[in-house]
Specification:
By secondary structure, this protein is α+β, with helices and mostly antiparallel strands. The protein has helices at about 55-60, 100-110, and strands spanning about 5-15, 25-30, 40-45, 50-55, 65-70, 70-75, 80-85, 90-95. The chain has a single domain, classed as Sporulation-specific cell division protein SsgB (Transcriptional Co-activator pc4, Chain A, Roll), CATH 2.30.31.20.
Amino acid sequence: MSVVEQYARAHIVTDVLEEDRGAVPVVLRYDPERDPLCVRVTLPGAAPREWVVDRKLLEQGLLAPTGRGEIRVWPCGRVQAVIEFHTARGVSVVQFETKTLTRFLRRTYAAAEPVPH
């Protein structure tokens, strides 16, 4: 099993930052040895923030609004999806192209499959 890492361009809307910075690089990471059920989403910034997202939640959120705890995921039109992160400091809304998340998820499932001997 191997680690899957993908860089994606995303738009971040937050009530913590004053201005919209446009598209920013976000890192999507899946490490089946560390946590086979979750992916990590790292948001850029002076102090990068990393979120752990259940893979099934992310997958379900591409089709219909869903959420658990501090994380909400929902489709936004036909070509975009949104992940919303809640903290005591505020809310960050990250908008991705759906095809980017779908491709990443497909790669994570391929990486998690046992290799035949």
